[in-house]
Write a structure and sequence with these properties.
- The structure is a single chain.
- With 234 residues, the protein is mostly beta strands.
- The chain folds into two domains: 76 residues, no CATH class; 144 residues, no CATH class.
- 4% of the residues lie in helices and 35% in strands.
- The chain contains two helices and 14 strands, in the order H-E-E-E-E-E-E-E-E-E-H-E-E-E-E-E.
- Strands 3, 4, 5, 6, 7, 8, 9, 10, 11, 12, 13 and 14 form a twelve-stranded antiparallel β-sheet that branches. A two-stranded antiparallel ribbon has the order 1-2.
- A hairpin with a 2-residue loop joins strand 10 and strand 11.
- The longest helix is centred in the N-terminal third of the chain and has 6 residues.
- The radius of gyration is 18 Å and the shape is globular.
């Protein structure tokens, strides 16, 4: 499957795509690529990412994405495994289907979706006075999660925007956006991407009050920020 011409001219590698509804995993395609699942996608390229990527070629070499512009439509390497090498800061996050978030409508996927099927991404943080809060993002799943999926570790990668506490509104709006990955042995697979920060929710752990993020509020992700690592994504 080849991307539209206008998309190819915009950026050869896009990690900020999302599925409108969870699709089915397509055998023989990597999870990080928009062709990895069935169903309609939103493919929009954002600039301002903070990671370095290399794509595995059919002969086992790793090339920078700009040297392999048609890589997502090339045949996969023999003994298909991790095909994307990414150097980035990993953020600690958790997935939840807890019904305490369901009333917000933050993960509205249709009238037949049950509350326990609404997946969100949760970051632990603190507010301005030091009180513990949870930053709750809508998660656009690539495909449906299974019960076994929820038992494995999840990490978040900043796919667009900035998490600096000194950022100003014009420089990062409407981000940040996080790509969510899951451990598979010694490497990872992509499972989805969060919505923009402007539409996230804040849970005050002391009071249990859940509210939409106020306009102009700058959130901190320092508590969930890990070290920079080189990881491999299948």
């Amino acid at each position: 499957m080849v991307a539209p011409r206008s998309f190819r001219q915009c950026r050869p590698l896009c990690l900020t795509w999302r599925s409108w509804v969870p699709g089915k995993r397509r055998a023989g395609y990597p999870s990080w690529s928009w062709v990895g699942t069935t169903g309609p996608k939103r493919i929009k390229c954002y600039y301002g990412w903070d990671y370095v990527t290399h794509i595995r070629t059919t002969d086992g070499h790793w090339l920078p994405w700009e040297e392999q512009p048609e890589s997502r439509s090339d045949p996969l390497p023999v003994n298909f495994g991790p095909t994307l090498r990414l150097r980035a800061t990993l953020y600690t996050a958790s997935l939840s289907t807890n019904t305490k978030y369901a009333a917000t409508g933050i993960q509205y996927t249709g009238p037949d979706t049950k509350p326990e099927e609404k997946s969100v991404v949760v970051f632990q943080s603190t507010d301005g006075d030091g009180s513990e809060i949870e930053i709750v993002f809508k998660l656009w799943l690539d495909s449906e999660l299974t019960e076994s999926d929820l038992k494995n570790a999840f990490k978040a990668i900043l796919a667009y925007g900035s998490t600096r506490e000194d950022r100003d509104e014009p420089s990062y709006s409407p981000g940040p956006v996080f790509m969510i990955i899951q451990a598979v042995g010694h490497h990872y697979k992509r499972i989805g991407i969060t919505d923009h920060e402007y539409s996230c929710w804040i849970l005050e752990k002391r009071t249990g009050i859940l509210r939409e993020r106020p306009d102009g509020l700058v959130l901190s992700y320092e508590a969930c920020k890990g070290s920079e690592e080189t990881i491999y994504i299948e």
